[in-house]
Amino acid sequence: xxxxYMPFHASPRKPRFSxxxxxxxxxxHVFGPAAQFPFAPxxxxxxxxxxxxxxxxxxxxxxxxxxxxxxxxxxGADNAALVDALDAADGLARGVAVVNADVTDAELRALDAAGxxxxxFNFVKRLVDDTPRDxxxxxxARVNALGWHIVVYFEAPDLPDLIPFLSELPGVIVVDHMxxxxxxxxxxxxxxxxxxxxxxxxxxxxxxxxxxxxxxxxGPPYDDVVPxxxxxxxxxxxxxxxxTDWPHPNMKSHMPDDxxxxxxxPRVAPTEALQRALLVDNPMRLYWPEEPVK
Length: 294
Ligand SMILES: O=C(O)/C=C(\CC(=O)C(=O)O)C(=O)O
Fold this sequence. Notes:
It is an enzyme of class 3 (hydrolase). With 294 residues, this protein is an alpha/beta fold. It has one domain (24-287): Alpha-Beta Barrel (TIM Barrel), CATH 3.20.20. It has eleven helices and eight strands. Strands 1-2-3-4-5-6-7-8 form an eight-stranded parallel β-sheet, sandwiched between helices. The structure holds (1E)-4-oxobut-1-ene-1,2,4-tricarboxylic acid (NQM). Residues 72-74, 122, 127, 153, 176, 214, 245, 249-250 line the site of (1E)-4-oxobut-1-ene-1,2,4-tricarboxylic acid.
């Protein structure tokens, strides 16, 4: 395990907020178990095992119904642990994979059959080595043909450089963790305005209003992050997703209580209509389009 790695919260409290029926945790991970699914040799961190059983128990404890499990960098492009979790989820989980340029069409089809609906491109330098943009473009075209979308993870200072590239990618693009704004700069900052105009100019850009625990400087209950998420939910109500980010790898300041994270939802989505869009309608449209939402 990475030195000083913080394990996930052992006993999160029950949220006070009751999520609407059918709510989706649209950003979470499974790690290992390493004995069965070894971590990637090129990884930048080694986490504590975070099993599918623990993830599904947390889902139930928090009053959520479904998960979108996102491949994390510690497993590289080996999606075996992700597929194992999808197989065990009884249709209640979908996945976002990581693939290399040499992935075969048969491997992509197998991931699709397992419930993968997106591919993740990671630009965060502490997590990955650089991937040439032509490689990402080629992968994007191939997964677009399967009807998948693209999830991108970057930090706010990298957005100006990435905009031309991201604008060329086909299909829906989902930005992780609000593009990691500097919350100390405030919602009126140039950086956050740029992010919003990027969304306004490109109707295919969606955003996860997730990860207050990583973005905060003030700490729980995340008063400094809530205005950012609320701004995006109110301005782009049909293009926002929410997720726990469990098991919160690489946290340094504190380990969040997942019950408290759920309780930020009514603060970022203050009406029932916004909560339903954020937690049910939007993720269902992207990940379970074949299921009628009641
Ligand atoms: O949980 C997250 O989304 C964020 C991560 C880890 C990650 O994304 C990865 O390893 O792929 C982070 O900021 O360290």
